[in-house]
């Protein structure tokens, strides 16, 4: 018999929020500030696209080495600025779906590779202050995706019955890999963001759906 889901971890950008190139725009500003030459900038941007969903500071360590802390500081400022300039929007049906889950007795965590400060800027812009039971960044839990820490943190804070009773939802391979490493009973990819079906299934997704709304009725 399938274990009922009681805790759900959902990703932010690409899963619950459409960012209109928010991450890419902020990263390009970071590159410009750090003065990378054109070939280095192209390689760096390609790496960022390939590692969507992962902890941003870890991505910057891989690209910038010892300059990663400065790059991360520039990026965090840039992403907040870009968000205010171009706007961010909730993907269709997200509030209704999350509200339905919570009304039915499930707890819902919003997980992201952004810092807590950036996350809260975006939450404020989206009007999500009351939407989730928990909001989690790598700095809260330990390591960022694809490590399982944010899922485990959510399980502890939201009193999951077991790993099997958790569902992880995301648009990137890193989201899915994190859920699988945490032992989540259901890991679902969505087609609203970064990665295609092949990458999501290759990372271990139990299924791929068009959007979060397709998961509204879990019973």
Instruction: Provide the residue-averaged pLDDT.
Output: 90
Separation, N- and C-terminal Cα atoms: 13 Å
Please tell me the CATH architecture of the largest domain by its name.
3-Layer(aba) Sandwich
Largest sheet: 6 strands, parallel
How much helical structure, as a percent, in the residues?
40-55%
CATH topology of the largest domain: Rossmann fold
Tell me, what is the CATH class of the largest domain? Alpha Beta
Using the alpha-carbon principal axes, give the shape.
globular
- Specify the CATH homologous superfamily of the largest domain: HAD superfamily/HAD-like
Whole-angstrom Rg: 17 Å
The total beta strand count reads: 8
Q: How large is the count of helical segments?
A: 10
Helix/strand-derived class?
Answer: alpha/beta
Strand order of the largest sheet: 5-4-1-6-7-8
Unreliable segments of 5+ consecutive residues: none
Count of spatially separate domains: 2
């Amino acid at each position: 018999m399938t274990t009922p889901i009681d805790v759900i971890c959902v990703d932010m950008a690409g899963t619950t929020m459409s960012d209109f190139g928010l991450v890419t725009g902020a990263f390009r500003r970071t590159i410009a500030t750090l003065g990378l030459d054109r070939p280095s900038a192209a390689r760096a941007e390609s790496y960022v696209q390939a590692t969507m969903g992962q902890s941003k500071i870890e991505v910057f360590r891989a690209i910038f080495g010892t300059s990663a802390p400065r790059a991360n500081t520039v990026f965090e400022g840039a992403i907040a600025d870009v968000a205010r300039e171009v706007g961010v929007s909730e993907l269709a049906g997200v509030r209704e779906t999350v509200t339905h889950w919570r009304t039915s007795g499930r707890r819902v965590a919003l997980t992201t590779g952004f810092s807590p400060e950036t996350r809260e800027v975006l939450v404020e812009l989206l009007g999500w202050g009351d939407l989730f039971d928990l909001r989690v960044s790598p700095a809260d839990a330990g390591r960022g995706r694809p490590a399982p820490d944010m899922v485990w943190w959510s399980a502890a804070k939201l009193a999951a019955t077991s790993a099997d009773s958790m569902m992880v939802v995301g648009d990137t391979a890193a989201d899915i890999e994190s859920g699988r490493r945490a032992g989540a009973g259901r890991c679902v990819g969505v087609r609203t963001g970064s990665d295609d079906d092949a990458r999501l299934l290759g990372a271990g997704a139990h299924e791929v759906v068009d959007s979060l709304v397709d998961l509204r009725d879990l019973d």
